[in-house]
Amino acid sequence: MTGRGIMALTRRGLLALLPAGLAAGVARARPAQRPKQRLWYRAPASAWTEALPVGNGRIGAMIFGGIGQERLQLNEDSFWSGAPYDPVNPQALGAMAELRRRIFAGDIAGAEALADAKVMARPLSQAAYQTLGSLLIEMSGAKGDPTGYERSLDLDTGLAETLFTIAGVTYRRRVVACPVNQVIAVHLSASRGGMINCRLSWDQVGADWSVDATAGDTLRLSGRNGDHGPIKGALRFDMRCKAVCPSGQVARDGEGLVVSGGDEMTLLIAMATSYKRFDDVSGDPTAVTAAQITAAQTQSFAQIAAQARDEHRRLFRRVSIDLGTSAAAELPTDERVRRSGAGDDPALAALYFDYGRYLLIASSRPGSQPANLQGIWNNSASPPWGSKYTININTQMNYWPAETTALPECVEPLIQMVREMAVTGARTARTMYGARGWVAHHNVDLWRATAPIDGAQFGLWPMGGAWLCRHLWDHYEYRPDAAYLASIYPLLKGAALFFLDTLQVDPRTGHLVTNPSMSPENPHGHGGTLDYAPTMDMQILADLFDATVAAAGLLDGDKPFADEVVAARARLLPMQVGRQGQLQEWPQDWDADAPDQQHRHVSHLYGLYPSRLIDVDRTPDLARAARRSLEIRGDKATGWATAWRINLWARLREGNRAHGILNFLLGPERTYPNLFDAHPPFQIDGNFGGTAGIVEMLLQNYGDTIHLLPALPDAWPNGAVTGLRTRGDCTIDVAWQDGGLQSARLRAPPKTMRTVRWGATVRQVEIGAEGAITLSPSSFR
Ligand code: FUC
What we know:
- The protein is an alpha+beta fold.
- The protein folds into 4 domains: about 1-30, no CATH class; about 40-80 and about 130-315, putative glycoside hydrolase family protein from bacillus halodurans (Beta-galactosidase, Chain A, domain 5, Distorted Sandwich), CATH 2.70.98; about 390-615, Alpha/alpha barrel (Glycosyltransferase), CATH 1.50.10.10; about 720-780.
- Helices cover about 30% and strands about 20% of the residues.
- It has 20 helices and 31 strands.
- It has a 9-stranded antiparallel β-sheet.
- Helix 8 (about 345-365) crosses helix 20 and helix 11 (about 410-435) packs antiparallel against helix 13 (about 465-480).
- The longest helix is centred in the middle third of the chain and has 22 residues, at about 410-435.
- It is globular and about 80 Å long.
- The relative contact order is 0.10.
- Bound molecules: alpha-L-fucopyranose.
- The site of alpha-L-fucopyranose has 11 residues, from loops.
């Protein structure tokens, strides 16, 4: 159905159409004003990137909101192709010395040929995240042109809703993914009794999967995951949908269920696989889904939705944002994206920010897999880039807003993944490099494969694990906890140890450098992409070594090892400024020779964001050079790469520039109607990077300093944000007016000192005995 034939009605108009009882129910269920934290549309989704996502971290659905047919496209986060495997190439170690020699000698083409022949993983690709298909609900009664069609996703409750009226009957569907009950619950109701008549079936069923509808009220789908190249799929899964419809009849109909004469109905959907750990697939998915349904069916839909809402709000409501509003905020979400170039919809940026937090809560919770390239939402068996964990920027970007927007629990799956990568990565370090410690290259999958993949020019980059360590350390710094620190120290140490064993002496300068490596995926114009000592590597190592030494000091031990790390850190090749005034991306001044001057990756600017090695005040020359590099790269790039540029300009305190790039990110070239980020195609990192960029415009934290409104754009003269977090367990609310500070409230451990900056003024303040202090513009006079 198209927008034609759907009469756009106001809420009051819609309520007038409803029978008295339902109108009261609907009115009660919905606030009088359209909540601002809401995506809404006047027509069903006609493409997957128009459908609305719900998720509980582990399982998720994309809801299309069709009239005669509802489609819920379903995912479970451990359903990937393949089986436990070790992809390390046994010839790699023997080739390593010659590979290094060729790279130092400048024979890059020869180095890449050798690496492709002997070093890269077997198989050359990693496993893919896969969909479990869709549940179809064919509504036999709902035929004809509806009026009052609206579908929405409420970011504050996690509830997706579809509402329309046909022939005087108003149909309502609600969907939640419940983290408490571990089911997706769907509720169908109508304003007239007996109008729930539908057929339920699975769609996109795999060739060897089996459908079972014999239980009468439960539709099951079970089977096996796909193969990953030569590696046979070893996961079993079970998915079931139970129809609870006491007022009507539920009966088997071939490979489906038919529901007739119901007043209302609840569907409970459970999904599980046999995955237990990267090396263990002995789980019993049938027992898991059966138990989940048994537990969930003791609750009404209202109870499940309330539990889902409360658990979601516990995290979501820690932060609020208001960037001002305008008439555009009243428009349907897809229209707002289409017209965002007008630049008059500040509330769209706030909605995007809220959505970023919503998506992280929905795709990464304790016990789940981390958010992959598509979070948890993927409708394909072979999605772009396998919907994996690409760790040369993308997975890290997913977690950029986590600590600053008070979602530390959502980082736990990432931390758990690093713990597992340290196990598989130790094998890779030993077998490939003959080194101690652990290493991961530019991608990881469900099986925690850590060897280099895809081709030497993309994959032979040994820094993925080292970069992830930054998130482990950040997690500690945002909320210091000695037991947690002790638990991650071996991971930091193992990552550092690998480099102590593998760093090479640069024959030109005598510095310690990585080799083989690359500046992620950017060919330098001197024979390929491989190189030694790309600037990013040196920056990541500086951070890794600093964190490792700091952690050792805090734990009061391991001094000899810490001394070794300090000594190696001092010998790393320093950052250099090149002949264009740019920050050099490579150890030689090759930037101007690179074939793609606007390359999406801005790896050497890692030092400016997310790192703080480059700073406008502390290292002004390097900051100027980074700025020059950014100018050369340009503002427009793929989704995530655009988002990275927002953060970088914010770090340079260029609020208007950052805002201009944010506007591009929010426009139809980089944002789909459902607000998913367009790489294109969909990749969720841009959503998270954009959310982080908004934070960076409003609040920055470096060294001991908390900088209020460091990059506030003119487009947001008035606003407020509450609940942002900085290092040292500090929570901050900031309000501003006419482009200036109105007030700031800091909550932190009592009697601690903080350094706060607004404009050019820096003040030392003491958090009071009650654990808070409020600052005003006069505090900075
Ligand atoms: C990196 C990027 C690509 C894409 C892929 C998933 O390799 O260079 O643009 O985002 O990850």
